Amino acid sequence: MQNNIYKEVIEKIIESIDEGIHFIDKNGKTLIYNNAMAKLEHMNKEDVLNKSFKDVLKNMEIKNSTLLKVIRNKKEIKDNVQKYLNKDGKEITTINTTIPVKINGELIGALEVSKDMTQIQTLSEQIIKLNDIKENNRKNKTKEGYNFSDIIGESECIKKAINISKKATKSDATVFIYGETGTGKELISQSIHYESKRRDKPFIAQNCAALPESLLEGILFGTVKGGFTGAIDRPGLFEQANKGTILLDEINSMPLQLQAKLLRVLQEGYVRRVGGTKDIPVDVRVIATTNENPVDILNEGKLRKDLYYRLNVIYIEIPPLRERGEDIILLANKFIKKYNYKLNKNLIGISEKGAKVLKNHFWQGNVRELENTIYSSMSLMENEDVLDEDMININEYKTNLSENTYIIDIGSKPLDWIIGDIEERYIHEALEKSGENVTKAAAILGITRQNLQYKMKKYNIRINR
Questions:
Q1: How far is Cα 3 from Cα 403, in angstroms, rounded to an integer?
Q2: Can you give the residue ranges of the Sigma-54 factor interaction domain (predicted)?
Q3: How confident is the model at residue 122 (pLDDT cuts 50, 70, 90)?
Q4: How many Å apart are CA 402 and CA 379, to the nearest integer?
């Protein structure tokens, strides 16, 4: 009786998870094939269960089957990127972990857990194409991007950051930039590149939080045909940025295993494509950025200390806008001029009361939030020629997710903590409302599944499965 209960519970678990599950016995017959795998491969479970694996997936070459490889070699294959055609002839991309299953030391079959990465793979290829387009555009122009003349500010703290950045243009040393979201880290990075001796070579930026490790590694270092199923010969961003600069944004989000490979590239000056054996020399200046305090990410183990010290040859800290009080109106006037042209307006400035509103706001989103506020305010104006206090459209963070009101002692906690606390609580509520289904919870919150998983990791939120 108890065994039947265990069996029923396990079957429920297998059918409720988002990952595909496929188990074959040592003769290649499918014994377990869950709904997620059937959906991924566009197969009917009845056409797969108790059938020979070789007869079912005829579009896949037998030699490329990780399940059959594990049966033959009796060794685990972990985090393997695989491309193949499903029943309808559509190419799908998965990340698989395949393990041999043994009882009393005897092999009885192989189990594969698959995550559908088709959309992310398509996105990564689009990123590569966009980088290729940017590179072609760069070759057809004498100059593109920002330089120091684009940076507006008279406060001492921003002047200090600019001064260090200008000194950084005179060498090829790696640069580590810390600044909150919206402070202008890429603007500083591009300014360093376009005023250095590398100005006529590529500047390529990659957000390290945008893609999972297996795809990010291929994008950074390239791939070799045959290196894994569906792989083609493709140079990575380091090769594309040769003689130029590569910006690694949100370096603290890069998986630790990939950080070790990046460290080796920085130390040796060579890259090795995924699946390749050849070392390819590259001459690339690296600029890394983080939106979290370096001390915190080191203490939390998000960034390897040896990599941090290798990157942190020149350290630049960009101050948040709230510490640049005298720059707020300077920047606001710059954005008014910009959007006068775009919106066909004719504003001549900001009223005294309007300036006071702008100066008193906390600007959690920094310069980016200020620009969006000016853009939004000007878009709603009609015939006014001055931006007054009642015309300033500062978007407050609101949600209809819950009727609960959170009361927080704002006198004792910084705004970053308050925003984080509210965000964490809403994530818990969304997971509760969705029955701890991550995909449904992401839809409730209006964000992507990947973004929700990133935030769950950030707040150490686990689901009870």
A1: 44
A2: 151-379
A3: low
A4: 31
| Identity of residue 426 | Y
Confidence grade of residue 16 (pLDDT, cut at 50, 70, 90): confident
> Is the pLDDT confidence value at 397 over 50?
no
- CA–CA dist 20, 82 (Å, integer): 14
pLDDT in tens, 162-203: 999 999 999 999 999 999 989 999 999 999 999 999 999 999
User: What digits encode the pLDDT tens for the residues 401-413?
Assistant: 444 444 444 444 4
Place of tokens 């039947």: 4
